[in-house]
Amino acid sequence: MVPSLDVEPFFKDGVYNFCRYSNSKDSNRDNHDTTSSYFSPLFTSAADLQLRFLCPSDLDQVKELCKEWFPIQYPEAWYRDITSDPRFYSLAAVYQSKLVGLLIAEVKQSDAINKEDKGILDGRMYSNCTVGYILSLGVCSSFRRQGVASLLLDSFLNHVTQSENQTCKAIYLHVLTMNSAAIRFYEKHYFRLHSFLPYYYSVDGKCKDGFTYVLYINGGHPPWGLLYPFLETILKYSFIH
């Protein structure tokens, strides 16, 4: 079943929210317009670009795309898991029967967050909540800057903000500090820099730094502290200088 896309996002009180509007026929947009309920379709018809979940027969094509898009080499088991294990939210954008975009994510218990990211939520929330983690998001070069990545991301955000998923309090991801295009994309979608991860990635045998970015949803929030309102500015200033 293709996820519902008839949602309009809005940003309020530091949290990304969604309100549903009826009879929408336009599901593609280039950016998140927080002031208008209408946007122009980017493709000539609704059938031009479709969203569907990955299946085992996609494995070889997914592997080729990931090798083309990402500098990180994933093990064979990872490809098998994301194309067959239902715990992954593995969504594909398909154009003329070819995969042109992918979003791989999962929703997991907050106590399963890795040590380096434990600080993304207020400690009082950890016992009864989940978090979403975006493993990968990529689009073929000829389809970039046409709203495909936003469409994939919006679908996942719609999923985790449904009434049955209100226990999900944050969405987080990791990104190379040198990947300025991805950083701009996530910041445009209201993700905020949370932490700096030195030597987090291994790329071509060399250690590279990363960032953790977080988007709070469903009433989630970070640990409160005197420095929190200025934390993002401090991190960016420290990294740049």
UniProtKB/TrEMBL annotation:
A GO cellular-component term linked to this record: Golgi membrane
CDD domains, sorted: NAT_SF
E.C. number: 2.3.1.259, 2.3.1.48
The N-acetyltransferase domain, residue ranges: 49-218
Catalytic reaction annotation: N-terminal L-methionyl-[transmembrane protein] + acetyl-CoA = N-terminal N(alpha)-acetyl-L-methionyl-[transmembrane protein] + CoA + H(+); L-lysyl-[protein] + acetyl-CoA = N(6)-acetyl-L-lysyl-[protein] + CoA + H(+)
Single GO BP term: chromosome segregation
Keyword set, alphabetical order: Acyltransferase, Chromatin regulator, Chromosome partition, Transferase
PROSITE patterns: GNAT
Any one Pfam family match given in the protein's UniProt record, by short name: Acetyltransf_1
Record family assignment: Belongs to the acetyltransferase family. NAA60 subfamily.
Protein name: N-alpha-acetyltransferase 60
UniProt organism field: Daphnia lumholtzi
